[in-house]
Amino acid sequence: MSSRFLQVLRLRFFIFLTSFTKSDNTTSKIDLYIGGFFGVNIQKGAWSTAGVIPALEMALEHINSDPSILVDYQLKYVWNDSKCESGSGIKAMLEMIDTPPHKIVFLGPGCSVATVPVAEAAPYWQAVQIGYSTSSPQFSNKEKFPLYFRTSTSETMENPTRVALLKQFNWKKVALLVQNQDIFVMTKEDLVPLLNKSNISIVATESFKYDPSSSVKYLIK
Description:
Elements (H helix, E strand, L loop, with lengths): L2 H25 L2 E9 L13 H13 L8 E9 L4 H13 L4 E5 L4 H10 L7 E3 L16 E3 L8 H10 L4 E7 L2 H16 L3 E8 L4 H7 L2
Helix pairs in contact: 3-4
């Protein structure tokens, strides 16, 4: 057998062994699943978070392709439609829990109204939940939501800026128009003392459920 043939044979065996090793390393990684909640099929007036899905896919691709992060693991995700509704939010969560594979963490929902029932129920399954856009002040209550964390700040954090803007233009009177949802009602309750402290008078307060038209007409009379 010629030395040339032996060299080619060794080279082919080395290539085969290398390919097998790479394939084995890839398949031996443990899959870790994230359970995502996104408002996709939403009703009029609700907020769609469907655009977050491509961002999540990009993030997972970056992490999974980095050999220095989670070397023995691979992140994947499955998602349910929370529809930016409280009932749909808890339904999506229960389906997520009852359906394999096991999820290591919940991501979302995107709007506060759908997040509340999920965040209230998650501790019963010891499920950590991460919010990517909810800003309701109530989620700052760690006694009520011990396993809920978020990347966005509470809506009340913007109240000092609102007061500063009024002072900048020397506006001494304001009217408040608030939608009847916890996120906005609680933000208003936090804002009122700040306005009073700054000697800014509240001349009127109106609320609405879905359509603010009649409330706006009343305020501009």
